[in-house]
Amino acid sequence: SKYLFAGYQLWVFGLFYQFRLFTFEKSALMFFITFLSVDFCYYWFHRCSHVVKFFWAFHLVHHSSQHYNLTVSYRLNWLGVLISPVFYIPLAFLGLPL
Questions:
Q1: Which among 37, 56, 62, 83 is placed 20 to 30 Å from 75, CA to CA?
Q2: pTM of this structure
Q3: DSSP state, residue 61
């Protein structure tokens, strides 16, 4: 489902990217900073998915199996991809490259 909604996620990012505070040159260092920043935002999205009841309602499917394995790690509610771009909006405002 994530691939189906990739256009939506890019649209949300682009919507806020046009109001960015900075413009960075593309470089290996910028790639590394962006990589760490995206991972940081994903951490907070995942943490909120466990702590905030609204997000947990989408995330609990991921933890519903009695036997955890690789296939269960991909068991996610498809509506979660509609919410996740919100956590990456600060990166767009900062001007990190898409």
A1: 37
A2: 0.84
A3: G
Q: What is the tens place of the pLDDT at every residue in 62-86?
A: 888 888 788 877 777 778 888 899 9
Phi-psi bin for 25: left (phi > 0), alpha (psi -120 to 50), beta?
Answer: beta
pLDDT in tens, 17-42: 999 999 999 999 999 999 999 999 99
Secondary structure class of 56 (helix, strand, coil): helix
| Residue position matching structure tokens 């199996």 | 65
Residues 60, 64: Cα–Cα separation, whole Å? 6
Amino acid at 58: F
Q: Give the list of residues 6+ apart from residue 37 with CB closer than 8 angstroms, or none.
A: 91, 94, 96
Rounded distance between C-alpha atoms, residue 89 and residue 87, angstroms: 6
| pLDDT value of residue 44 | 96
- What is the rounded CA–CA span in Å between residue 41 and residue 91? 9
Place of tokens 């907070």: 44
